[in-house]
């Protein structure tokens, strides 16, 4: 594994991190989840990304991760970066959602209890809720660090104007924003306009989630929507209407280029994100050890020629390919 320094900090993060958004909850195989986490750590993935509502059921990914850590990796805690987040719907009533101080303070205490950890390495505000003053949310993050419940803080999905405000508030309090997390991939290049440059200008690392566009940038949808896939489900983030003929065709052309590079489409899509030196890491998901290994093998070929990058730009030039 290769590592990058995270923004203007002394913290190294692996170029590929493991996210536990899907496949690590109470409805999933605990044995498979254990095998994937152990394999990731064996391959020098030191960063594991959680959130309080990951599951399903909400909270179960944290609980399972804590159990796996205790049973298998407890002696390696200081070799790991473990992050979690709060801000999305988690428990009933008016205080289990949003970006208020009440929610963040209660959430981190619950998350620490579920995981069995004494502290998180990174704790994020998972989103701007559209209501809570940014000053309130950032002060909660500042106090979380000062209370020793997290070593660093981050933000996720904040719009650019508020993103800059977060950086300013945290910097003034001498608790700088370590890392900024946004959805970024070949079909979602919006962060290139402001989010990535702002992070770099303010000394924050940048980490991409959904780097494979929920599977669109894999070989899964090259021939339509297979039964049992995410897009075939009635609910979820990837819907049937998202798998447009134009995106399928673009993925096919990208796949041809990936094959010429000796990579899978997923590997090339991950490498393409990491081409930008301002990007610290990408967060991958996995449903099996084999899929995990395939994605981690991306690290074997991160180099692009100018001709390859030009070809990718040509394939992606249609604005209709971009996910809203």
Order of helices and strands: EEEHEHEHEHEHEHEHHEHH
What's the main sheet like? 8 strands, parallel, barrel
Mean pLDDT: 94
* Shape estimate: globular
Quaternary state reads: single chain
Number of helices: 10
Report Rg.
Answer: 19 Å
- Structural class, from helix and strand content? alpha/beta
Gap between N and C termini: 32 Å
CATH fourth-tier homologous superfamily: NADP-dependent oxidoreductase domain
Helix % is 25-40%
Instruction: State the strand order across the main sheet.
Output: 3-4-5-6-7-8-9-10
Q: Give the percentage of residues in beta strands.
A: 5-15%
CATH topology label: TIM Barrel
CATH class, named Alpha Beta
CATH-defined architecture: Alpha-Beta Barrel
* Low-confidence blocks of residues: 231-236
Total number of domains:
1
Question: What's the number of extended β-strand segments?
Answer: 10
Give the tags.
37% helix, TIM Barrel, 8-stranded parallel β-barrel, 324 residues, 10 helices, two-stranded antiparallel sheet, alpha/beta
Question: What does it look like?
Answer:
This protein is α/β, with parallel strands linked by helices and 324 residues long. It has a single domain, classed as TIM Barrel. 37% of the residues lie in helices and 15% in strands. The protein is built from ten helices and ten strands. Strands 3-4-5-6-7-8-9-10 form an eight-stranded parallel barrel, surrounded by six helices. Strands 1-2 form a two-stranded antiparallel sheet. Strand 8, helix 6 and strand 9 form a beta-alpha-beta unit. Helix 1 packs parallel to helix 9 and helix 3 runs parallel beside helix 4.
